[in-house]
Amino acid sequence: MFFDLSPLKLLALVILGTIVLGPDKLPGMISQAARVLRKVRAFAEDAKQEIRAELGPEFQDFEFEDLNPRTFVAKNLLADDTLGLRQIRDGFRLDDEAEAVREAVRTAGDSVDLIQQDPGRAPDRPPVPYDSDAT
């Protein structure tokens, strides 16, 4: 929808409009708002056509959505990927490294549990210093 209204929000607006304007004026206000919205859309479309006409024939396929930087990059830079940007983007994915860290933490946690259960099982580790004054 135009303003990304969910059906629940739209229902709340109708109920609020009925309370504020009254049931007799609400249909007229809705039709007037729809007329204004159609006029604004027609004005915007006319402005787009006029700008395209002024720019010339080489800009006939120009879309104003392309002025959004994210759309521009996706359409012009990532479409053919001659610069290797997709490989650079994929290089920032840290899923494998994060899984390795998770596994290391999991393994370290298992080792700590084993040491606490049976201190004799880990002879290669030095005993943890215990300071009774610090605790």
UniProtKB/TrEMBL annotation:
Transmembrane segments: none annotated. Keywords: Membrane, Protein transport, Translocation, Transmembrane, Transmembrane helix, Transport. It is found in: Membrane. It comes from the Bacteria. Signal peptide: none annotated. It is a single-pass membrane protein. This is Sec-independent protein translocase subunit TatB. It comes from Actinacidiphila oryziradicis.
